[in-house]
């Protein structure tokens, strides 16, 4: 902590000034955004009881996030009070409300009576510049740390643009070309030419960009701060839940957070890092109380890592908020209708703390059994639950068939033996927790809109203007290429191979081509490649056959490059 920060901290503790308001006081060098996906507010108290039980000294039995909580966030999307992860995460990243499936992309109007905010029809499908992309333009290092596959909605919201969140191959390509310094999580399959529909080898492309690409715990542990560009993926898809995880092969969210900060903080210009506790949401969708609470405790450990760095650094802010609620999880359910006030901590929490694995982890164990008659014994050993005849026959019917169904049946058994309630297997629309740390205590408070979280991020990063950056770097082709002849060669098999071909005059031998979702333009003389020139942003190809839309969004200054080259 430098002298100025110490003085500020002393003044704050003396109550001599209560808020830091000048732009200089707000601005920090590093920002860590942390999102526990799909975490309803009741998970906070549940996690506290789960972690500490009866607390010998109340003063020490707090979650790290507890003392940072300063308000609540409204989470709706542009056309629905209950949001999907793609638009809700996008709102934090871009400042705009959007709709289901839209990843950092301006929404389309859902029609009269449905839009919750004004939606400008002229901007539909426009890629929206994100805080991560803006940090990059401002020479900061950037990172994404998640426990799901890296192509999932929340990490994509900060680093890719599409109106179809399920286009994972397309999202992966954008993220590879978007010059992110550190990516940790799961999802090797989305880089693998043997598993991608378009057969694109994104690992080779990463290596050409001088990234270190690692998949092993040993390589992760030996990463040095000097490994400034690294992708570390530790599973084909999502990473295992924290309590199911093999510590020797998969790093924890806290370990990935620590390592990413170690690397990113070597940039003297600072960094922007997004950390997602991705699978609180997945456990909530399964209605698995053990998964929800243990994943949130793992997320809180990552918060502690970030907070230790921020306090020591003195120039780092942390913003923590879920993207939306999920499952209506409650402490107390139908079983406690009459007994709620006489349930002791042991009765309330041991059904959860006795489980050594999440429902998904238990499903893997049951699927690996050679004799299904051992189910009752194995189940009891790992959960302390004595299965009823009905539960046992249900498990025997499902084991080694549909994995998701088996997981949900186990989750139902966990819940039926506990006092935890669920009202939905989907997202929920209540406000979510907001927690912040700022070295000069400049924080939001009360109930805020999700768009205000984005405003805050832009503010503390130094006053970024994302609207202007969107117009500058995701400029529609008709405007960016005025005065040129151009056409889109749409690839019917994969959008990833569609190209934008630009000429000054018809039949000119020299021309330029931009491949969809890459960050460079290639100059040709007839069929021969003359040179490749890097751009500051990725070119986004949008194709909506139903509406007869096929267009590119590219850097507005492309004309200056073309003027010299073709
Ligand atoms: Zn979500």
The tally of structural domains comes to 3
CATH level 3 topology of the largest domain = Alkaline Phosphatase, subunit A
Q: For the largest beta sheet, what order do the strands appear in spatially?
A: 5-6-4-3-7-1-8-13-2-14
**What is the residue-mean pLDDT, rounded to a whole number?**
94
CATH architecture of the largest domain: 3-Layer(aba) Sandwich
Distinct helical segment count: 21
Which ligands appear in the coordinates? Answer: zinc ion
Largest sheet, in brief, is: 10 strands, mixed
Cα-to-Cα separation, first versus last residue: 53 Å
Can you tell me the CATH superfamily of the largest domain? Alkaline Phosphatase, subunit A
| Percent of residues in beta strands | 15-25%
Radius of gyration: 25 Å
- Name of the CATH first level of the largest domain: Alpha Beta
Number of strands: 22
Shape call: globular
Find the structural class using helix and strand composition: alpha/beta
**Helical residues, percent:** 25-40%
Residue windows where pLDDT falls under 50 for at least 5 positions: 13-20
Account of the 3D structure:
With 566 residues, this protein is α/β, with parallel strands linked by helices. It has three domains: 28-329 and 424-448, 3-Layer(aba) Sandwich (Alkaline Phosphatase, subunit A), CATH 3.40.720; 354-421, no CATH class; 473-565, Copper Amine Oxidase, Chain A, domain 1. It is 35% helix and 19% strand. The strands form five sheets. Strands 5-6-4-3-7-1-8-13-2-14 form a ten-stranded mixed β-sheet, sandwiched between helices. A five-stranded antiparallel β-sheet has the order 16-17-18-19-20, with no helix packed on it. Strand 21 and strand 22 form a beta hairpin. The longest helix is centred in the middle third of the chain and has 25 residues, at 289-313. The radius of gyration is 25 Å and the shape is globular. Zinc ion binds next to loops.
């Amino acid at each position: 902590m430098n002298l100025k920060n110490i003085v500020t901290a002393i003044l704050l503790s003396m109550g001599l000034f209560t808020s830091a308001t000048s732009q200089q006081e707000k601005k920090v060098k590093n920002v860590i955004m942390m999102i526990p996906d799909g975490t309803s507010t009741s998970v906070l108290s549940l996690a506290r009881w789960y972690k500490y039980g009866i607390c010998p000294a109340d003063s020490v039995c707090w979650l790290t996030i507890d003392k940072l909580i300063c308000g609540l966030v409204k989470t709706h999307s542009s056309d629905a009070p209950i949001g999907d992860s793609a638009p809700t995460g996008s709102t934090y990243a871009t400042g705009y409300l959007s709709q289901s499936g839209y990843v950092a992309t301006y929404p389309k109007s859902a029609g009269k009576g449905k839009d919750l905010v004004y939606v400008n029809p002229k901007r539909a499908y426009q890629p929206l510049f994100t805080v991560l992309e803006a940090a990059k333009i401002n020479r900061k290092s950037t990172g994404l740390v998640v426990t799901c596959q890296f192509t999932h909605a929340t990490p994509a919201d900060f680093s890719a643009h599409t109106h179809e969140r399920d286009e994972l191959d397309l999202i992966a390509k954008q993220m590879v070309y978007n010059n992110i310094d550190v990516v940790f999580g799961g999802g090797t399959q989305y880089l693998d030419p043997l598993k991608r529909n378009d057969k694109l080898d994104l690992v080779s492309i990463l290596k050409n960009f001088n990234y270190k690409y690692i998949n092993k715990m040993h390589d992760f542990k030996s990463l040095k701060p000097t490994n400034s560009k690294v992708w570390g993926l530790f599973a084909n898809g999502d990473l295992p839940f924290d309590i199911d995880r093999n510590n020797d092969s998969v790093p924890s969210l806290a370990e990935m957070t620590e390592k990413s900060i170690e690397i990113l903080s070597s940039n003297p210009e600072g960094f922007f890092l997004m950390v997602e506790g991705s699978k609180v949401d997945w456990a909530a969708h399964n209605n698995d109380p053990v998964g929800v609470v243990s994943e949130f405790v793992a997320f809180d450990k990552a918060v502690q890592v970030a907070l230790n760095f921020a306090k020591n650094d003195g120039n780092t802010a942390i913003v923590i908020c879920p993207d939306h609620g999920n499952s209506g999880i409650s402490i107390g359910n139908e079983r406690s209708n009459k007994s709620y006030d006489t349930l002791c901590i042991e009765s309330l929490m041991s059904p959860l703390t006795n489980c050594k694995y999440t429902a998904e982890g238990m499903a893997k164990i049951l699927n690996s059994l050679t004799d299904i008659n051992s189910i009752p014994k194995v189940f009891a050993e790992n959960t302390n639950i004595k299965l009823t005849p009905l539960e046992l026959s249900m498990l025997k019917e499902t084991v080694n068939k549909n994995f998701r169904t088996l997981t949900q049946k186990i989750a139902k058994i966990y819940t039926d033996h506990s006092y935890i309630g669920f009202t939905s297997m989907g997202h929920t629309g209540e406000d979510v927790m907001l927690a912040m740390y700022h070295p000069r205590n400049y924080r939001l408070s009360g109930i805020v809109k999700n768009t205000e979280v984005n405003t805050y991020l832009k503010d503390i990063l130094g006053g970024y203007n994302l609207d202007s950056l969107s117009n500058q770097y995701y400029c529609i082709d008709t405007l960016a290429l005025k005065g040129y002849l151009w056409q889109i060669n749409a690839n019917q098999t994969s959008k990833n191979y569609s190209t934008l071909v630009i000429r000054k005059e018809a039949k000119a031998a020299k021309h330029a081509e931009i491949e969809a979702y890459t960050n460079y333009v290639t100059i040709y003389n007839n069929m021969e490649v003359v040179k490749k020139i890097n751009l500051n942003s990725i070119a986004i190809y949008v194709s909506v056959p139903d509406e007869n839309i096929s267009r590119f969004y590219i850097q507005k200054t492309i004309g200056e490059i073309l003027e010299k080259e073709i």
